[in-house]
Amino acid sequence: MKPPVALKHAFVDSAPEVLEEGVIYVSIRHRTAMHKCCCGCGSEVVTPLGPTDWVLIFDGLSVSLDPSIGNWSLPCQSHYWIRNNKAYWAGAWSEEQVAAGRRRDSLVKHRYYEKAADPSPSAPARAPEPAPAPVRPGLLARVSDWLAAWGRGN
Question: Is pLDDT of 126 > 70?
Answer without folding.
Answer: no
